[in-house]
């Protein structure tokens, strides 16, 4: 999970942070800082509440000297890159296993949502005013394209985590169903509803695997294993990164002697 999922996200963020910093004439944050902040952000989101992760990174980057507007633009660009990565993964799955993906109501529903998002993207591309907003609030061009490729790699890594979690529970999970479950999780957790999306993420996986013929008890076991695959490494690596970020913030706020 740390290497295949978060690793590409670190590269994705570093690409965008570097482009944004150079645009402002600033030095980009070191790779080690980006990795620490992203790991801390994931720990805050997975162990507490999703938006807390964005807050941790925003405050830390602002403390490092990056203007708030630039940080917001990076966050917006990251969301665009993630959406592009998800769309690329969905289209790849559809190209190689159309019957497995579209053979269930969930798959058809997810791809209807993807089609709606694609139409929205075309509307943005056709409107000069909307294109201007995207250019203003996101790093476009080569940086966004490269970050989208790394977001796609992170999505592939996340599918692998889900597949391995199912294997760990002795559940035979084919790749198209794993992709469908991954897309269902991302759709269901797009808006923070519960702390760490507890229950929401598990329900999405159970429903998705159920469409693939996996009984609910086995699907729930896969969902809990997938949750553990995130909690355990983030507790071991992410929490120290989060504490280190918090300690640095406390030192900055401390009054000078």
Please give a structural write-up:
The chain has helices at residues 2-23, 31-47, 50-63, 68-96, 98-102, 105-126, 128-137, 142-168, 175-188, 200-211, 216-253. The chain has 257 residues and is an all-alpha fold. It has one domain (2-253). The model has no long low-confidence stretch (mean pLDDT 89).
Q: Order of helices and strands, N to C? A: HHHHHHHHHHH
How many individual domains? 1
Percent range of helical residues: over 70%
- Look at the helices and sheets and give the structural class: mainly alpha
The shape, in one word, is globular
Low-confidence sequence ranges: none
Q: Please, how many helices? A: 11
How many strand elements? 0
Rounded mean pLDDT score? 89
Q: What is the CA-CA span between the terminal residues?
A: 43 Å
- Biggest sheet features: none
Which radius of gyration do the C-alpha atoms yield?
A: 19 Å
Give the DSSP E fraction (strand runs of 2 or more residues): under 5%
Task: Please outline what is shown here.
The chain has helices at residues 2-23, 31-47, 50-63, 68-96, 98-102, 105-126, 128-137, 142-168, 175-188, 200-211, 216-253. The protein has 257 residues and is mainly α. It has one domain.
